[in-house]
Specification:
Length: 480
C-alpha cells in the first residue's frame, strides 16, 4: 500500500544543510541560474518538485516517436546556449533545424501561404492583398504612439489591420498562445516597441538595430536559427542537472521560505516523506508566478498578489503520428499558424519530423498541434477523444491527412504561458521594487524578461549575476 505522508507518531529524520543559495524550481530558468552561480564558486541547491528536471521542457520517447510536451525547439538568440552546450558536453547531440524549416506557413481563406522571406516574395505572395502591401509602404511616415498600447493597437496603427490579422495575430498565438488585443506591446515585444521609440519607425529601426546587435554578438529572433537536440529539448536541462550533480534534488517540493535574520533565510521542503530545511544567504525563486506567489505570501502579501494577478493561458499540445504516404501535404517547412479570422479549432501545427531527425520512425511523420490558448481556452477542457476528433478534422482539411492515427500523446498545460497583458510593466516594476526591498531574494522565470527558452536563459544569467553580487557583498560564504 502506498503512503502519502509519514505514519502518525513516526519519527522522520529531518535533513538539514547549509548552502549559499537555494534555487526553487528546476526548469531551464532555475537550472541556468544555479549553474552560473556554481561556476562562480557558490554552494547551490536546486529543489525541484517533479521527478525530473526541465519544467515545461519534457521530451518523451515512446513507440519510436519523440514527443515534446513543451518547446519543440529554441532560437539561438544568445551565445550563452553554445557555451552551455559545450560546457555540458552535449555538442554531439546539438541539431540545427532542417533548412526547410525556414518556410513558415500561414492559413488564409483555408489555404496555406508561405510567409514571404524577401521583398520579391513579399510582392508576389497572396497572403496579403495589394492594398495591404501598399499600406506597409506608409510605415516610415507613421508618427510615434503615446502611452501603453496593445499589440493590436500598435501593429494596426503602424502597418495596418491586414498585417495584424494575417501576420501578427497568428504569430502571437504561436508564441504566447495569446490575443494581440490583450497583450501589451511594450511588455510582450519590447524590442519591436523600442524600434518606434528609439528610431521613429520599424523599418528604420530594423536597419540600425541589426548593426547594434552585431556588436553585442546577439541575433534578432527573425534571424536566429532554431535548434534542438537528437534526444529532444530536455537534453539541455538534464545535462545542466548532471553537471550540478548532488546540488539538484528532484521530488523536492519547497513548502516555505523564511527570513531568519537580515542576511539569512531558511527554506523548508518535503522530499517524499522526509522534511528538510536548508539555511542559506540567498534564494532564487524560479517557479511559475502563481507558485512564487504562494511562497512569498508570508513575506509580502503585496508581491504575492502582484504575482497572482499574472494570468496564464492554457494550451493542449498533441503529438500525432501518421504514415508518411497518408499525409497529402509535403510538410516542407516549420509548420502552419492559424489566424483568428480563419475560425479554426487549432492555433497551429508544427511539422516536427520535418524539422529534426529521430522524431518519428522510418516511413512515419510526427505533427504537433496546439489547441486552446487565450483564443479558445474552453477547448483544452474537452475529453481527449473529442479533442482528437476536432484536431484530426482540421488536419484533414488543412494538410490533407487521410490515414489513421498511429501515435498520439496529449499534454494539457492548464497554466501554460504567462500573458504579458496591458498593465504588465507596472507589475514588473512592483516586483523589481519588492526585490530591492528584500536583499537576497530573487525572482526569475518566464513571466519576467520574455517567455522563449532563449529569454529564460538570458534572464537566468542576469539573475545569477545579481545574486552573485549580493553574496559577495554580504557576509562570508557559508560552508556547503
Ligand atoms: C506548450 C508549450 C510550448 C512552448 N514552445 C516553445 C518553443 O517552441 N520555443 C521556446 O523558446 N519556448 C517555448 N515555450 C516556452 C518555454 O518552454 C518556457 O517559457 C520555459 O521553458 C519556462 O521555463 P522556466 O524554468 O521559467 O519555468 P518552468 O519550466 O515552468 O519551470 C518551473 C519549475 O518550478 C518547479 N516548481 C514549481 N513550484 C515548485 C515548488 N514549490 N518547489 C519546487 N519546485 C517547484 C516546477 O515543477 C517546474 O519544474 C513553450 C511553452 C509551452 C508551455
Amino acid at each position: 500500500m502506498s503512503r502519502s505522508g509519514p505514519a502518525p507518531g513516526r519519527v522522520v529524520n529531518e535533513r538539514r544543510e547549509r548552502v549559499d543559495v537555494v534555487i526553487v524550481g528546476g526548469g531551464i530558468s532555475g537550472l541556468c541560474a544555479a549553474y552560473w552561480l556554481a561556476q562562480q564558486g557558490f554552494g547551490v541547491k536546486v529543489l525541484e518538485r517533479d521527478a525530473e528536471v526541465g519544467g515545461t521542457m519534457k521530451s518523451v520517447h515512446e513507440q519510436g516517436f519523440l514527443s515534446e510536451t513543451g518547446p519543440n525547439s529554441a532560437l539561438e538568440t544568445t551565445p550563452l546556449f553554445r557555451e552551455l552546450v559545450d560546457e555540458c558536453g552535449i555538442s554531439d547531440e546539438f541539431l540545427y533545424a532542417n533548412p526547410v524549416g525556414k518556410n513558415r506557413y500561414i492559413l488564409r481563406d483555408g489555404r496555406m501561404h508561405a510567409l514571404p522571406l524577401d521583398p520579391a516574395a513579399f510582392l508576389m505572395t497572396k497572403l496579403f492583398s495589394a492594398r495591404g502591401k501598399f499600406r506597409l509602404l506608409k510605415e516610415p511616415f507613421v508618427g510615434r504612439g503615446t502611452g501603453e498600447e496593445s499589440i493590436a493597437e500598435f501593429v494596426s496603427r503602424r502597418v495596418g489591420q491586414e498585417f495584424l490579422d494575417y501576420a501578427i495575430d497568428p504569430f502571437v498565438a504561436g508564441v504566447f498562445a495569446g490575443r494581440p488585443e490583450s497583450l501589451s506591446v511594450q511588455a510582450s515585444f519590447p524590442k519591436l516597441y523600442a524600434l518606434e521609440k528609439k528610431y521613429g519607425g520599424l523599418v528604420r529601426g530594423m536597419i540600425r538595430g541589426r548593426r547594434e546587435r552585431k556588436q553585442r554578438a546577439e541575433k534578432a529572433k527573425d534571424r536566429a536559427e532554431s535548434f534542438s537536440f537528437a534526444g529532444g529539448m530536455q537534453v539541455l536541462p538534464r545535462a545542466i542537472a548532471t553537471k550540478l550533480g548532488h546540488a539538484v534534488l528532484t521530488n523536492a517540493r519547497v513548502e516555505a521560505i523564511r527570513r531568519t535574520d537580515p542576511s539569512s533565510f531558511s527554506v523548508t521542503y518535503t522530499h517524499g516523506d522526509v522534511p528538510g530545511t536548508i539555511d542559506c544567504r540567498s534564494v532564487v525563486i524560479s517557479a511559475p508566478a502563481y507558485g512564487a506567489a504562494d511562497l512569498l505570501q508570508p513575506l509580502s502579501g503585496e508581491a504575492a498578489s502582484v504575482l497572482r494577478s499574472i494570468t496564464y493561458s492554457p494550451v493542449t499540445s498533441m503529438v500525432l503520428g501518421f504514415k508518411k504516404e497518408e499525409v497529402g501535404h509535403p510538410l516542407d517547412g516549420f509548420g502552419v499558424l492559424i489566424p483568428t479570422k480563419e475560425r479554426r479549432d487549432i492555433l497551429g501545427c508544427l511539422w516536427s519530423s520535418s524539422l529534426f531527425p529521430y522524431r518519428a520512425p522510418e516511413g512515419m511523420v510526427a505533427l504537433t498541434a496546439f489547441v486552446g490558448g487565450a483564443r479558445q481556452p474552453e477547448l483544452t477542457q474537452l475529453p481527449e477523444n473529442k479533442l482528437c476528433d476536432l484536431v484530426l478534422n482540421e488536419l484533414k482539411k488543412i494538410m490533407q491527412v487521410s490515414g489513421k492515427l498511429v501515435y498520439l500523446r496529449v499534454t494539457t498545460w492548464k497554466q501554460a504561458i504567462p500573458q504579458y497583458e496591458l498593465g504588465y510593466l507596472r507589475k514588473i516594476e512592483a516586483l523589481d521594487r519588492f526585490e530591492e526591498s528584500r536583499p537576497g531574494l530573487f525572482l526569475c522565470g518566464n513571466y519576467r524578461g520574455g517567455i522563449s527558452v532563449g529569454d529564460c536563459v538570458k534572464s537566468a544569467s542576469e539573475v545569477s549575476q545579481r545574486a552573485a553580487r549580493h553574496l559577495r557583498t554580504h557576509a562570508s560564504p557559508a560552508r556547503g
